[in-house]
Amino acid sequence: MTQIMTDDIFNKIEKELMKILTRTPGVFRSQYDLYSELLEEFDDIKDPIEKDNFKIRFLLVLRKLPSIFDDIVVKNNNGVLNAIYSIESLDKTLETDSYEKIDSTNISMPSEIAVIRFIVDEKIEKYITSLFS
Per-domain residue ranges for the chain? Predict the structure, then answer.
């Protein structure tokens, strides 16, 4: 896959994630919930290997969002990433740990090591710098 195509998929995932998060401001959304909703936009991915790669790309973008957008926060809650979009009283929202109930029965996510290996193997420069910060 060329670098331009790789950048395009990351940009598309970023755009779709922002659409999802901005529809429910002030509500933490789990990585499983976000991934399920994101798959609806990327329903043309059928190949199992591509689906696994897509999960990794999704997790990379989700982790990177707070460094791109000031009004996005991603918290790790017992190994599950939860994201929130809030432009008003962000501090007050973050004080409450009101996470949505997580339904992870149908989705397995790659480990953090698998994500790091993917970044290195694919030479994805945009995300290499975030590994060391």
Answer: 3-131
